[in-house]
Design goal:
Elements: H1 4-11, E1 19-22, E2 29-32, H2 41-54, E3 56-59, H3 66-75, E4 95-99, E5 125-132, E6 140-144, H4 145-150, H5 154-160, E7 164-168, H6 172-177, E8 195-199, E9 201-203, E10 210-212, E11 218-221, H7 226-240, E12 246-249, E13 256-260, E14 264-268, E15 277-284, E16 290-291, E17 296-298, E18 301-303
Parallel strand pairs: 2-3
Antiparallel strand pairs: 1-2, 3-13, 4-15, 5-13, 5-15, 6-12, 6-14, 7-8, 7-11, 9-10, 9-16, 17-18
The structure holds fe (ii) ion (FE2).
Fe (ii) ion is lined by residues 109, 113, 115, 266.
């Protein structure tokens, strides 16, 4: 019986452009041996394939200034847009997040969340590049929403299959505006009024692998009250954050981390007081989330036509 790690590795096509070292059995990989600025288009396509399967990649030893980061980000697709943060001068698609040694209080994104989940089409990829990294601390946590789905019982999968989640931008602008290290756009206030519906159970457009579209701003399900929805949301999020569905990424200077934003939740760790941390961020446009739909009924459980994950871990 293959474990999570073997299932993940068996699903990844052969990759020759770099050395890939998985972080855990569920998601995440370190990548060494590739220069994203000078890599061929074929090599960049292999990075994208690794991302489709591993969901988060820490690509080590890049050497990028903002212009170089801009070039690398755009090799993976057009900018998704950013309604909230004021960009770096000269680069519409880059934000610089700085945390100074004397800064106290929350860091940006320290609660588990999906980036911009309330957008009609959330970013497909978020990229961060480490300009200044503390000697220790400031790791990032990730939780696979595909592995979380696969860990649900068949009955629970069938129960939630057709739910539509309502994701709200309420409070998002206020949190960002209250952080003195961030520069926000005044027009970002409009985010507070946004409510967007996304299917709860979706499928990855390339691998066909099902996942839970969860976020920290999921308010309720269509046709249900908040009181009715909350126990289901609370259960699914606590389930998704079980240790076996997560990885913890350690940063180094010149690490470029990219994650396949809709297929995981992530959180920043606020444990490096007294140190400076500076990262550049860009995002890549994604595609509309695809409802997994009823799928095939096979052996009493819901399975899916595409991809390599036709059976759940619990059934093998
Ligand atoms: Fe984030």
């Amino acid at each position: 019986m293959p474990g999570l790690y073997e299932t993940l590795m068996n699903a990844i096509p052969e990759l020759t452009a770099f050395d890939l070292r998985p972080l855990t059995g569920s998601l995440g990989a370190d990548i060494v041996g590739i220069n994203l600025l000078t890599a061929s288009d074929e090599e960049i396509a292999q990075v994208q394939t690794a991302l489709d399967h591993c969901h988060v990649l820490a690509i080590r030893d890049q050497n990028l200034d903002p212009a170089g980061f801009h070039k690398v980000a755009r090799r993976f697709g057009p900018f998704s847009g950013n309604m909230i943060h004021r960009p770096l001068e000269g680069f519409e698609d880059i934000v610089r997040f700085t945390r100074n040694p004397e800064d106290r209080g929350p860091v940006v994104g320290e609660d588990f969340h999906m980036d911009l989940a309330w957008m009609e089409i959330p970013p497909g990829i978020t990229m961060l590049y480490g300009e200044e990294i503390p000697p220790v601390g400031g790791d990032t946590l990730f939780a696979s929403l595909s592995a979380a789905y696969e860990g649900l019982s068949d009955t629970m999968r069938n129960l939630i299959l057709n739910l539509i989640g309502v994701h709200s931008g309420k409070g998002v602008f206020a949190i960002n505006a209250s952080n003195t290290a961030l520069s926000v756009k005044a027009s970002g206030q409009a985010v507070e009024e946004i409510e967007t519906e996304h299917p709860l159970v979706c499928r990855h457009p390339v691998t066909g692998r099902p996942y839970l579209y969860l976020s920290g701003v999921l308010q309720r399900f269509v046709g249900m009250t908040e009181e009715e929805s909350k126990p289901i949301i609370d259960f699914l999020i606590s389930h998704a954050l079980r240790g076996e569905y997560t990885c913890r990424l350690r940063w180094e200077p010149r690490t470029l981390t990219m994650w396949a934003n809709p297929y995981l939740m992530h959180a920043a760790i606020n444990d490096y007081h007294g140190h400076r941390r500076v990262v550049l961020r860009s995002t890549v446009a994604g595609s509309p989330p695809i409802a997994a739909g009823a799928g095939d009924q096979e052996n009493g459980s819901t399975t899916f036509r595409k991809g390599n994950f036709r059976k759940s871990r619990s059934r093998e």
